[in-house]
Design goal:
By secondary structure, the protein is of the alpha+beta class. It has three domains: 2-34; 41-119, RNA Polymerase Alpha Subunit, Chain A, domain 2 (Beta Complex), CATH 2.170.120.30; 129-216, YbbR-like domain (RNA Polymerase Alpha Subunit, Chain A, domain 2, Beta Complex). Helices cover 19% and strands 44% of the residues. The protein is built from four helices and 15 strands. Strands 3, 6, 9, 10, 11, 12, 13, 14 and 15 form a nine-stranded mixed sheet that branches. Helix 2 crosses helix 3. It is elongated and about 100 Å long.
């Protein structure tokens, strides 16, 4: 009891009291400023992209989940400050190939509550990962390769392409584009592209290596 009396006496000292009062007043003004002039509870709905976590190494995501609308609730200042930190995700631990439905989890900062998630379940499509080896073709843009160096070759001349089985099956050829350059830099590197039979670029594939060099091969086969 004696300690409580001493603590109360300390708080009610004029110099301490006015400091605490000033601090409390500053906090109230700050909350009003960040809460658009109100300290009351508010609710807000945000649209979020759904992150996909823990995809098994032998699977690749083909059809990503749809966006969700999340209603959050809390004191206006906390909702205003916390809204950018709200995130939604699904956990694909233990997933298998095909279409499966997962519960949407939402993370919110301290002081913010989740009122609703719509939809609360989303479906994604995954496929087994496949890979294949393709030769690299050099494609010269705006110039005849014979006018530059007819004995140019890609190095390496084959690469490994990895990705979803259905996309990999569409790969017809792999190319590296070389633009018009009378003084072609053989020390440079050039990105490779996987194309389908109509020459369209296929995305969602991993190329190893992702870039190749260009070398000149002399008649005896040496670089």
């Amino acid at each position: 009891m004696n300690r409580i009396n001493k603590f109360w006496a300390f708080l009610t000292r004029p110099d301490v009291y006015w400091r605490i009062f000033s601090l409390a007043l500053a906090i109230i003004f700050w909350l009003l400023a960040t809460g658009d002039g109100t300290l009351g509870e508010t609710e807000r709905t945000v649209t979020l992209g759904v992150q996909v976590r823990n995809v098994p190494s032998d699977l690749v995501l083909v059809d990503p989940p749809e966006n969700v609308r999340v209603s959050i609730r809390g004191l206006a200042p906390l909702v205003n400050r916390g809204e950018p930190s709200v995130s939604a995700y699904i956990d694909l631990s233990g997933a298998s190939e095909g279409t499966e439905t997962y519960s949407v989890e939402v993370e919110v900062p301290l002081g913010v509550r989740i009122a609703s998630i719509n939809p609360s379940w989303v479906s994604v499509y995954t496929e087994d990962v496949a890979e294949d080896v393709f030769p690299v073709t050099l494609v010269f843009l705006g110039i005849d390769r014979n006018q530059v160096m007819p004995n140019l070759r890609p190095s390496p001349d084959v690469i490994t392409v990895r990705g979803a089985r259905s996309i990999l099956e569409e790969v017809d050829h792999v190319v590296a584009y070389l633009g018009f350059d009378p003084e072609l830099n053989l020390n440079g590197s050039y990105p490779v592209r996987a194309l389908d039979a109509k020459g369209r670029n296929l995305s969602g594939l991993e190329k190893t290596p992702a870039e190749i060099r260009v070398v000149e091969v002399v008649e005896n086969g040496e670089e």
